[in-house]
Amino acid sequence: MEKGRTIIVAPNGARRGKNEHTELPLTVDEMSHCLTVCADAGAAMAHMHVRDHGGKHSLDVALNHEWLTEMRKRHDQELVIQLTTEAIGLFKPQEQMALVRGTEPEAVSLALRELRPNASFERDASRFFYELAERNIYIQYILYDAADLSLYFQMLNDEMLPNRGHHLLLVLGKYKKDMLSSPTDLLDFDIKRISSEGISWATCAFGENEHQCLAAAMSLGGDVRVGFENNLVNLMGKRAINNAELVQQLAILSQKMGLNINTAEDLRKNISRSFES
Predict the structure, then answer these.
(1) Residues 238-251: tens digit of each pLDDT
(2) Nearest-angstrom CA–CA distance, 145 and 176
(3) Nearest to 81 by CA among 97, 102, 95, 67
């Protein structure tokens, strides 16, 4: 049976504000409303950036714990809530680790190159990754290019990464001119090896070609992340009404491709199995 696809919604990101789209959620209540309509549209996971009272991306442990607790109380049945440790050039690995240790999220995304910027950080990063696996915190390793993927496989082979309880996010277009992704950017990653080794993966893409990039990923067996963090326009090239419109586009596409869309319950079953590997 063809496995289902998971739609992850990334509603706000670390940098965008209301000046770019009025429906971009910056408060707890705005995020909650956004997640309600996105879950109804087909999302099973929410990639949540916590913002402070000034609207800035924050790794403050208490604030992240407050947002996470509230979102899980309101949306735990229909969504897996994923925190992020994104550094945005401001936060150090120890601050990123402290966030996860202090909040105990069900799932977390982290950029491998940020937690392991060079070999001198590898041992501490490895201990952290194994710690999260022991605590059943589902890790999404964010990989920006082929070099990041190579590092992932190297650390996996050297047993510096636990071979369970994680998946990958392949980012398309982050470092291209104008951050404009193309479906051919997927060719930079060894999808055949990822798939042959049974590694769960997803893709996100920047700019107006987001939908085409994610369609390509779904056809290759990948899950997808969509939302205002990466793109503000719909399939027709017009400004999307809200994040839910972008989620719904993918849900409709999935139906047309004959693919099932995972619910949060399906996703949690997959997560549970990943820790048994």
Answers:
(1) 999 999 999 999 99
(2) 11
(3) 67
> What pLDDT was estimated at residue 16?
93
pLDDT per residue over 42-72, tens digit each?
999 999 999 999 999 999 999 999 999 999 9
Residue 147 falls inside a structural domain: yes
pLDDT at 1: 37
**Tally of domains within the chain:** 1
Q: Domain range spanning residue 184?
A: 7-274
Alpha-carbon distance of 268 to 117, in angstroms, equals 31
Residue 191 lies in a domain: yes
CATH number for the domain harbouring residue 221: 3.20.20.70
**For the chain, what is the mean pLDDT?**
94
- 122-134 vs 93-103: helix axis angle to the nearest 10? 10
* Residue 146 CB-half CA count within 13 A: 8
Task: Give pLDDT tens digits for 174-219.
Answer: 766 677 889 999 999 999 999 999 999 999 999 899 999 999 999 9
The DSSP code sequence of the chain is -PPPBPEEE--S-SS--TTT-TTS--SHHHHHHHHHHHHHHT--EEEE--B-TTS-B---HHHHHHHHHHHHHHHTTT-EEEEE---TTT--HHHHHHHHHHH--SEEEEEHHHH-SSGGGHHHHHHHHHHHHHTTPEEEEEE-SHHHHHHHHHHHHTTSS-SSSEEEEEEESTTSGGG---GGGGGGS-HHHHHHTT--EEEEE-STTHHHHHHHHHHTT-EEEESTTT--B-TTSSBPSSHHHHHHHHHHHHHHTT-PBPPHHHHHHHHHHHTT-
Determine the average pLDDT of the residues in 85-101.
Answer: 94
